[in-house]
Every structure is written in C-alpha cells, then in structure tokens.
Write a structure and sequence with these properties.
CATH topology of the domain at 6-187 and 221-229: Metallo-beta-lactamase, Chain A
Radius of gyration: 18 Å
Structural class: alpha/beta
Bound molecules: zinc ion, fe (iii) ion
Largest sheet: 6 strands, mixed
Shape: globular
Strand order of the largest sheet: 1-2-3-4-5-6
Helix content: 25-40%
Distance between the termini: 24 Å
CATH class of the domain at 6-187 and 221-229: Alpha Beta
Number of strands: 14
Order of helices and strands: EEEHEHHEEEEEEEEHEHHEHHH
Number of helices: 9
Strand content: 15-25%
Length: 274
C-alpha cells in the first residue's frame, strides 16, 4: 500500500495543478491553478497569511484571480481582506459565517464557476469544526479546510458529534481517487492516535511507517485521498466493529448508536497524549 492514488479517469484527465504553501506552524495554504491556458492564474484557498500568498505568487509568476474560504478561523482568513483589496478579486465563503470581505456567500448545493480559471466547484456544507464550515469539491479534488485531515478530523469547536459524523459521511462518499487538500500537516500525530484505536489495521501500520519516513525528510503528507483515508482514518471508520470495540473499551460502556461512538473517539483523541 502506498500514498500514490490511482490514475484519474478520463473526464478528469486534465488533472488539477495545485501549489502548496506552508504557513504558520503547520498550515498549508493552497493555490489552485487554472486549467489549460489559464494555468498562471490561481485561486487561493484559506489564505491565512497574505505575505505567504504574495511570495507564492511572486515566486511562481502567478496572478491571483479568486479567494476561496472554508471557515472563519484566523489561520484561514487572516490574509483575506488585504489580498482582496490589493488584487481586487472576489472572495467566496460560507454563508453561515462572518468572513472578511466576502463577496459571494455559499451553501450546500451551490456551484462556483471561476470563469477566469476554467474551474468549477460544488459546495458541501460540512458543519462540526465550525457551524458554517463548507468544502469545495471539483476536478477530482476536495478543499475541506479543517474538517477532514489525513488520519484525523477537526476538533468540534462549534458542532456536535452527529453533525461532524454526517459531514465526514458526505466526504467519504466522494470517489476514492479524490485528492484531499486539507489545511494542516497533522498526519504523524493523528496516526499515533489512530494506531492506538486500531492496532490491528495493517494498512494503517504501513501508512504510519511511510508517514514517519516522509516527515523525517520534511516531505508533506497532503494531499491525501478519500480512498486512503477510508482505510486508515479512524474518524471515517467509527461504524466498523474494530473501532466500535475500541470506543466501548475506552468509554467503559457500549456506545448508544453511531454519533455516540464517533463522539467517544473524538473525545478520546482530545485527551490523547501519544
Ligand atoms: Zn479551523
Ligand atoms: Fe485551521
């Protein structure tokens, strides 16, 4: 088992090109390139730091054409107002949250057509980490902010376990080859927790070894893919017997249904020191 995702099917042959910009301690800001002749134009996803974006644009000889925001936290919106003002670009963001300089308010089912980039995304409501959190899906890619991480998921700051479980269920139904561009490099510590939940999961053990190797060389572990996460991420696996049993053992009681089992695993991770 490796990190490589399968070749994309024909309709997605024009694979999305995405530039990764590390920021702060462990954030990734993403520049999504336009298709074809638009490849030097980019949309910035969750530009928490305007300077990092400016430097990325300069280094790549790129032009900013749009800003896409997933949720209102500072490490995701910190650079939005300055960049929107400086480049005069539209700011897309969740309808249910206060987003600086937002020009287009989005909710579940909305379509975002970025004509200047030749890109098209579908909006998914994914509450849990924050109440109005959205994700952008399209071109066999997913920009999910702090909802799904490799080996983990966002903390429940404004949502319930039932909401986050429903949000993750939605993401889990995307095609397995979908590349997942999450906003943080949390993979290694997520996997230390995952392995205590599922010590018998061979795919998880192999992935943890691979991630340790990558991180020791300073290599980024994201994007990940939906297919990989379904095999290794305990938060996408809370209905499986193995995870259910671990949750019950940790809580000292049987979970009352799916959301409760998910909530137990999420709480367990909050207190986990691995
Ligand atoms: Zn956040
Ligand atoms: Fe964040």
């Amino acid at each position: 088992m490796g990190l490589e995702v399968k070749p994309l099917p024909a309709p997605f042959a024009a694979e999305l090109s995405v530039t990764r910009l590390p920021a702060f301690e462990d954030n990734y800001l993403w520049l999504v390139h336009g298709l074809g002749e638009h490849s030097r134009r980019v949309a910035a996803v969750d530009p928490g730091d305007a300077d990092v974006i400016r430097e990325g644009l300069r280094a790549g000889g790129l032009e900013l054409a749009a800003i896409l925001v997933t949720h209102h936290h500072g490490d995701h919106v910190g650079g939005v107002a300055a960049l929107a003002h400086e480049f005069g670009v539209p700011v897309y963001g969740p309808a249910g949250e206060d987003i600086p300089a937002r020009t287009v308010a989005l909710r579940e089912g909305d379509e975002v057509a970025l004509a200047r980039l030749g890109l098209h995304f579908r909006i998914l409501d994914v509450p849990g980490h924050t109440a109005g959190h959205i994700a952008y899906a399209g071109h066999s890619a997913l920009f999910c902010g702090d909802t799904l991480f490799s080996g983990g998921c966002g903390r429940l700051f404004e949502g319930t376990p039932a909401q986050m479980l429903a949000s993750l269920d939605k993401l889990a139904k995307l095609p397995p080859e979908t590349r997942v561009y999450c906003a943080h490099e949390y993979t290694a510590s997520n996997l230390r927790f995952a392995r205590s939940v599922e010590p018998e999961n061979a795919a998880l053990a192999a992935y943890a070894t691979e991630v340790a190797n990558m991180r020791s060389r300073g290599v980024a572990t994201v994007p990940t893919s939906i297919g990989l996460e379904l095999r290794v991420n305990p938060f996408l696996r809370t209905r499986l017997d193995e995870v259910r049993r671990a949750a019950a053992a940790h809580a000292g009681r049987e979970p009352h249904g799916d959301a409760d089992a998910f909530g137990i695993v999420r709480e367990w991770k909050n207190g986990f020191r691995g």
